[in-house]
Amino acid sequence: MTGLQLSLRTAAGLRYTIPSMTLTEELTWRGFVNQTTFTDGGSRELNGKPIKFYWGVDPSADSMTIGNLAAAMLVRQFMMHGHQATLLIGGATGLIGDPDGKNQERDLQSMETINHNKEKIIAQYRQLFSDFQFELVDNYDWFKGLEYLDFLRDIGKHVPLTQMLGREFVRSRISEDGAGISYAEFSYVLIQAYDFLRLYEDRQVILQLCGSDQWGNSVAGVDLIRRKTGGEAHVYSTPLIVNKSTGQKFGKSEAGAIWLDPAKTTPTQFYQFWINLDDEGVEDYLKIFTLLDKPTIDELMTRQHQDPGARVAQTRLAEEVTRLVHGEELMKRASTITAILTGKTSLEHIEDEALLKDLRAEIPYVQVSGDSEVAEALVSGGLATSKTAARQLLMDNAISINGQKTKHEKFESSDFHNGRLLLRRGKAFKDSILVELH
Fold it and tell me: Against a cut of 0.70, is the pTM above it?
C-alpha cells in the first residue's frame, strides 16, 4: 500500500510522512528485515489489503527498554501502512518467564508484581501508539480458566517433543555443563504458541511480529496453527540492533539498560543516550527509531558528513525518539538541560521550576552563602574527596564556573545568575554541581 507524499503531525507531536514506499520497500530501506515465513519477503501479502497482526511483551519488568522500542517501531510501520494491530501483554507468560537466552532458571515473580508490571507496560503501549487504533489483549485471560488435561489433549498433542528438544537453549541447559531446565520453562514455547492459535481462531490474526530472539517461539505458533487447524499463519522478525562502534547489543549504557519509564531512565538521560551515539551507526538508528522519511534522513546525513562535530544527526535523533517516548514537553526540557550541562545554554535565563527540578535530578546540588568557599562546595557536591584535594583541583585549573575556568577560593556575586551557578570539574558534564544561594 502506498500513499500520498503528505506530512502529518501525530497526537504525540511527531512529524511523519504518509508512506510513499510500499511496506516491504520501507522495511528493507529501514533495516527491519531479518527472517520471515512469507515467500518473497511477503510483498504480495504485506503490500496488499490490510491484514491482522500481533506483537507482545512479557511484563517481566515494569518498563520496556529501547530494545523493545526497535520492535515497536516495526509495529508502527505496519500500522502506518494500514494493517490492524493487536497488542498483547503477557500476563500468563510473564508468570513463567521466557528461558530463551538464559543460562539458568529465572526467579518466579508474584502475581502482584506481574499485575503492577502489566499496568506500566500497557501505559507505554498507549504512549507509543497513541495516534493509532489497536486491540489490547492479555493472555492471562484465556489461560486462567484453562483446564490442564484439556490443554494437553487439545494443544500438547499437536506439538512434537523433538521440536521442543531441538531448541538451542534447551540443548544448552540440559547438556552436561548446563544448569538444567524446569518443566515450567521448558513449556514456555508451548504457551506462547497457544497465544498465536487463540488470536488466529478468535480474531483472525495471521501474522506475529517479533524481535529476532523470539523467532523460535513465534514459528512454534505457526506450526501449531497448521497442525491444529490446517490454516496458514506467518512470522516477521526484526534483527537485533548492534552498536556498530562497540559490536555490543544496542541499548546499554554505563548505568545499565535504557528504559522507557522516566522513573528508571530520566528523559534527560534518555535524550543524552541518543545524542551521544556514534557517527558510524547514526544513520541506521535514524531509520529504525524515527518516523523521518528518506529525503529528510538523506539531508541530515549530508549535513552530518559536512560537519560531524555539529552532530546534527544525533541531535535530531535524540529529539525524535524522546518526543515519541516522553512527549513534546519533556523532550524540550531534556534538550534544554543537556544544553545547560554542555555549556550551550546559560543558567541565567532558566526560571522554570519544573526545569530546575529536572536539573537537580540529574546532577548534585548544594546550597551556599554568597561568600562560601569553592572548595567546600566541591566536597559537598562529591567532586572532591577533601578541601585539600579541591584546592589542588583549583590550582590545576581543573574547575570551571558557568563554563569559565576559575582559581578563586570563594564564590563572587557575579558568578551567580538568579542565585545559581554551574560548577564543574574537568570537561564531562556528569561532573557538575548546581550551586544555589540560600
Answer: yes
Domain segments of the chain: what residues? Answer: 7-240, 253-347, 363-437
Residue range 253-347, CATH number: 1.10.240.10
pLDDT tens for 232-242 read: 999 999 999 98
pLDDT at 13: 54
> What CATH code would you report for 7-240?
3.40.50.620
pLDDT tens-digit readout, 94-150 = 999 888 767 777 788 999 999 999 999 999 999 999 999 999 999 999 999 999 999
Phi, psi (5° rounding) for residue 434? -90, 120
How far is it, in rounded angstroms, from Cα 396 to Cα 406? 10
Alpha helices in 10-110 (DSSP H): 23-30, 43-46, 66-80, 93-96
The type of residue at 409 is E
What amino acid occupies position 253? S
Other C-beta atoms closer than 10 Å to the C-beta of 108 total: 14
* pLDDT, mean over the chain: 90
The identity of residue 219, as a single letter, is V
Q: Are 98 and 217 in contact, with CB atoms under 8 Å apart? A: yes
Least confident of 16-30, 34-48, 70-84: 16-30
Task: Determine the Cα–Cα distance for residues 18 and 248; give it in Å rounded to an integer.
Answer: 34
What confidence score (pLDDT) does residue 254 get? Answer: 59
The Cα 254–Cα 431 span in angstroms is 15
363-437: what fold? 3.10.290
**Bridge partners for 423 per DSSP:** 401, 433
Residue carrying the nine cell digits 535514524: 286
- DSSP, residue by residue, 133-177: -EEEEETHHHHTT--HHHHHHHTGGGS-HHHHHTSHHHHHHTSTT
- Side chain identity at residue 162, one-letter code: T
DSSP 8-state code for residue 434: E
